[in-house]
């Protein structure tokens, strides 16, 4: 604990970077969809499947890492995951087919999700339950930088060197993060009492799922996050094909929209001094549902201009800056020794719903903005309704317990 206190800034920075590997891997190549499709002799809809396969890989892979992180400690499985990511990224540099890219993105996701699971579990390891929402807000500052920097960097890389070099950049970045994990993060002790046999693992996951606080906030937070994934999947076509932005312009608009997410995630830290995580989550979801509904109404009436969609998506993502840290903290607070498994389940639920949203955007593609906008609105409305009708006696606001 002394080491944690002395290196708190570096630890939070490293946890943020680990959490940002996945988002950076998504955001950086979005401006290149058109260039990738042209180079690989296919269409943007086919390339969108590489984003879907990434979501599927992250969702499924987290279930693998959760028990491993609890059994062997946080660092060893994490290092293996980072090495898998680096290998897949190198493969993407040399890939020459769309289907090959889709497969390697799936493998890349299996590596990147180690960082996502480990970082959430380490927050629960290193900090008390009363601080976790604040720590998640601080992580959002690092995570939130990726949507600002990644598309802009990606746009310039594509213009100067071509889209393959995006994966060169990701390879080098992850090697640096791997070195940081080795030399900065504290070691964690393995727990030899945790079995890796299928039956005990599933029993442990089931115990986590039976906790009402975890289930409610994991599903509500995951459904809200899936609106973000619908935006990620649909925005390249909507912004570049419908509204006529080029790669650079798309990158700058993407960065502007991400700024709302970063700003509110930091404002959340101040809000927590006066309001509970439960209250902040509920009102943020209400505002997000309103923004999504208004966007859908304008799209259906063919009145959604470029500036209109930018403003409303900005408001939509700004609400997510309040939703993510609070719902994540509330879902994980009941766990300590089983934080790895709980973190894995949380991520799997979030990314599974996100993958479904991404697939729906591709399936419903009709060369309009309606598929993306309607799915974003539906996700926000459903998430708000989940929290709105929670029986008060079904949640455990600040309790810390372990189900192992």
From TrEMBL:
Record keywords: Cell membrane included? yes
List GO molecular-function terms, semicolon-separated.
xenobiotic transmembrane transporter activity
Major facilitator superfamily (MFS) profile domain location is 11-395
Could you confirm whether the keyword Signal appears in this record?
Answer: no
Question: Where does this protein reside within or beyond the cell?
Answer: Cell membrane
Q: Which GO terms describe its cellular component?
A: plasma membrane
| Topology versus the membrane | Multi-pass membrane protein
Q: Which domain of life is it from?
A: Bacteria
Q: Name one Pfam family in it.
A: MFS_1
Q: Name one GO biological process term.
A: xenobiotic detoxification by transmembrane export across the plasma membrane
InterPro entries in UniProt? Efflux_drug-R_Bcr/CmlA, MFS, MFS_dom, MFS_trans_sf
Membrane-spanning segments: 9-26, 46-65, 77-96, 102-123, 135-158, 164-185, 214-232, 252-271, 306-332, 344-364, 370-390
Record keywords: Cell membrane, Membrane, Transmembrane, Transmembrane helix, Transport
> Family assignment?
Belongs to the major facilitator superfamily. Bcr/CmlA family.
> What is the protein name given in its UniProt record?
DHA1 family bicyclomycin/chloramphenicol resistance-like MFS transporter
């Amino acid at each position: 604990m002394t080491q944690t206190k002395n290196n708190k800034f570096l630890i939070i920075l490293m946890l943020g970077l680990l959490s940002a590997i996945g988002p950076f891997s998504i955001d950086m190549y979005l401006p290149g969809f058109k260039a990738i499709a042209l180079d690989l002799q296919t269409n943007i809809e086919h390339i969108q499947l590489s984003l879907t396969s990434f979501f599927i890989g992250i969702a499924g892979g987290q279930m693998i890492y959760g028990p491993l992180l609890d059994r062997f400690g946080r660092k060893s499985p994490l290092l293996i995951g980072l090495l898998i990511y680096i290998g897949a990224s190198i493969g993407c540099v040399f890939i020459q087919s769309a289907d090959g890219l889709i497969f390697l993105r799936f493998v890349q996701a299996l590596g990147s999700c180690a960082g996502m699971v480990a970082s959430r579990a380490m927050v629960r390891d290193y900090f008390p339950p009363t601080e976790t929402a604040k720590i998640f807000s601080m992580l959002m500052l690092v995570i939130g930088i990726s949507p600002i920097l990644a598309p802009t960097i990606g746009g310039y890389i594509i213009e100067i060197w071509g889209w393959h070099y995006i994966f060169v950049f990701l390879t080098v970045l992850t090697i640096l993060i791997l070195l940081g994990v080795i030399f900065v993060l504290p070691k964690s002790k393995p727990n030899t009492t945790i079995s890796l046999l299928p039956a005990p693992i599933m029993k442990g996951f089931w115990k986590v799922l039976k906790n009402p606080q975890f289930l409610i906030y994991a599903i509500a937070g995951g459904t809200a996050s899936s609106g973000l994934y619908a935006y990620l999947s649909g925005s390249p076509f909507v912004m570049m094909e419908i509204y006529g932005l080029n790669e650079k312009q798309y990158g700058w608009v993407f960065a502007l929209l991400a700024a709302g997410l970063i700003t509110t995630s930091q404002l959340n830290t101040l809000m927590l001094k006066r309001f509970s995580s439960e209250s902040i989550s509920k009102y943020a979801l209400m505002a997000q549902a309103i923004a999504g509904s208004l966007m859908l109404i304008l799209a259906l009436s063919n009145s959604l201009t470029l500036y209109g969609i930018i403003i409303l998506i900005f408001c939509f993502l700004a609400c997510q800056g309040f939703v993510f840290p609070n719902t994540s903290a509330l879902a994980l607070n009941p766990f300590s020794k089983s934080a790895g498994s709980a973190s894995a389940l949380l991520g799997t639920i979030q990314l599974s719903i996100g993958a479904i949203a991404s697939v729906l955007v591709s399936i419903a593609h009709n060369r309009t903005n309606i598929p993306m906008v309607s799915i974003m609105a539906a996700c926000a409305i459903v998430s708000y309704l989940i929290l709105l009708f929670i029986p008060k006696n079904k949640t455990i606001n600040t309790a810390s317990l372990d189900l192992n």
